[in-house]
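Structure, all two chains, one model.
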Amino acid sequence: MANDNQEKDLGLTLGMLTLRIWLAIRAIQSGVEKFAGTGTTAKAVQIDGAANEYGLTEAASYKAYAFSNYQGVPGPLYDKFAGEPLIPGWGLDLYNIILGPALLILGFTLLLGVATRYTLFAMGLLYTSLTFGLILIKQDAGVAWLGTHILMIVAALALAKYNRFAILKKW
Amino acid sequence: MLTRRDFIAKGTAGAGLVMGAPSILKAGPAGTAQDPIRVGFIGCGKQHEVLFNAMVNIPGIRFVAACDIMKMRLGRTFSAIKGKFDYNINRYFDAEEMLDKEKGNMDAVFVATPDFWHAPHTIMALDAGYHVYCEKMMSHDINEARDMVAAMDRSGKLCQIGHQRRSNPRYRYVLNELVKKNNIFGQIININGQWNRALSSSQDIGMDLVDNPKKHSMLPSPEVLRKYGFDRGADRELSEKELWHRFFNWRFYTSLSGGPISDLGAHQIDIFNWFLGVQPKSVMASGGRSYFKDREHFDNVMCVFDYDTPNGTARAFYQVLTTTSAGGGYYESFMGTEGTLEMSEREAYTNIYKESGANNGDVWNEMVARGFLKKEAVGQAAGGADAIASYESAPPDKYALPGGLSKPPHQPHIENFFDAIRGNDKLTCDARHALESEAPIYWVNPSAEKKEIITFTDEHLHT
C-alpha cells in the first residue's frame, strides 16, 4: 500500500535513495568492522629457490572477520571512556555489546526501507550517543564528522516523502 | 626428607664413581603423537610460565604433574592446564615425592626453580630416570654444574640447558651460513654485548604479599623455606620477612644465585663462545653496588674476555646494567674486518653492516642475489657542520636477515628437547656443551670482586 504522503519527483526520489544507501552502507560496514581482526601467516623463507632448512619464516598479516573478534567500542576508545566519570562502567559494557549489532540492524532496515523515518531517527540517536562520548574525550574532529552524519539524516528525513523502493513505507 | 645440602653431598660422591661415562645427546624412541611425551614441572614461577606458554602449541605432549612449594603458583599451573587442555594434573609440594610417585607416568621434567636448586633437582630427576630440561644458569656454583654433567653421563638421560638461542633458527642460520660457510664478516676481532635494564624492572618483587599480613597465608611458611634452603649463607636465624624476601628475590643473594651477570649475561656470553667456537683465555671484570647498595650482588658489571681463535685473537666486552635501560636494549655485536653483526633475540635489535671497503663485496652481493641477505640501505654520510670528514670512516651499507622466527623464542629449544627424546634429533645445548660455554661466566664475579685478571686454566673451565 502506497504511503499517503508520498510525492513524485524523480530528482528528489533519487536523492532520497542515494542518502538511504549511503547511510545504510555506512552503518552496515561500520558494524561489520567491529568483527574484524588481524591474523598472521608465516611462510618459509626461500633461499636459492628452495625453502630454507633452518625454519626462518616471513610473516605476513591479513585481515579476517570472526565473531570472536567482536569489539563494539575500539580498545583505545574504551580505555578512555572507562576513565570518564559521566560514563558508568556497566553502561559502557552494555554499549560495547550493542553498538555493533545496532549499527547492522539499523543499516539493513534503512537499506531495505523498513520504517524508514523511525530507522533514521534511531540512527540519529545512535550517532548522538557516539557524539556524547567523543565530546567527553575532546575528539572535536570526530564530533564534527558525526555532526555531518546527523545533517545527512535530517536531510533524509526531510526527503522522506520521496522515499520509494521500501518494504514498509508506513513509518 | 632429603635436604638440599644432603642431596648435593650424596650426589657429588656418587658422581665420582662414574666419571668418564659417555654423554648421551640423543635418546631412543619415546613418545609420539599417539603416545605423547609425559611432562612434569618442578617450579611454577615466572620462568615456568614462559616455558609453559612456549610449549602449549607443541603437539605430542601431555602434562602430568607439577611441583612448587607455593600453593598459589601450583594452583595457577593446574588451572592453566585445565583451562587449556581440559584435564587434571597431579600436584606436589615436594619434588622428590613427585619424581618418586610419577615413576612410570612421566618421561621428562622441566626445572625452573631458583638457581641454587637447579643442580639438586636436575640430578635427582636424571638419577630417577627422567629426561630434564633445566633453565640456565646451570647452577650458582660451577662444581654443582659439573655434577649435573656427571649425572647426565651416568644416567644416560637427556639434559637440555635453557640457552634457548642455541635452537633459535635466526642464530643457527647466522652462525652456519653467514659466519662459518661464507665468512662474510671476515676476521671477528671485537665483540660487544649488553643487557641494559631500567630501575623500574630491577626492583624487589613479591613485596605486595610480604608487606601485607592478610596475604601471608598465601606464602610458604618460614619452616618450609628453611627446609628448602632459602636461609643458605645467612650467619643468623632469619625472620619470616627476610625469608620471604629471599624466596621472591633469590637473585639478589650470592648463596642462592649468580647475580645479574648470571641471570642476564649468561645467555649472551654463551653466544660469544658458541659463535667463536672457543672458550676465552681470560677475564677482566669490574662491578659495583652503585645504586642497590644493600644487595649482595653487584648491580652493574662490566667485563672483557680475551680469546685466541683459529682466525686470531679477539676481545669481547660485556656489560649488564640494572640501573639504566637506554642504549639499545640487549644484543650481541660481532665486529669483523668486513662487516658487523648486531644480533639479538629481538629482531628489532638485529642489524647487519658491510664495511665500506670490504674486500668480499662480491660475496655480499651474491648472498643478496641468492636470498641469504636483504639489502636495506646504502650507507649515508651523516654530514653536518660538526662532521670532520677526513677523520671518519665511510658509512657501512645496511643489510637484514631474510626472515625471522614466528614462534615464542623458547619454543624451538623445547621442540629440540622433545625431538631428541623421540630420537629424531640431537640436543642443541646438552649439559656438557652448556657448561663449556658457561664455565667462564662463573669467574666474572670473582674477577670483579678481586679486581684481578683471571687467566683460565683447565682447573677453571673443565666440565
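Confidence is low (pLDDT under 50) at residues 11-24 of chain B.
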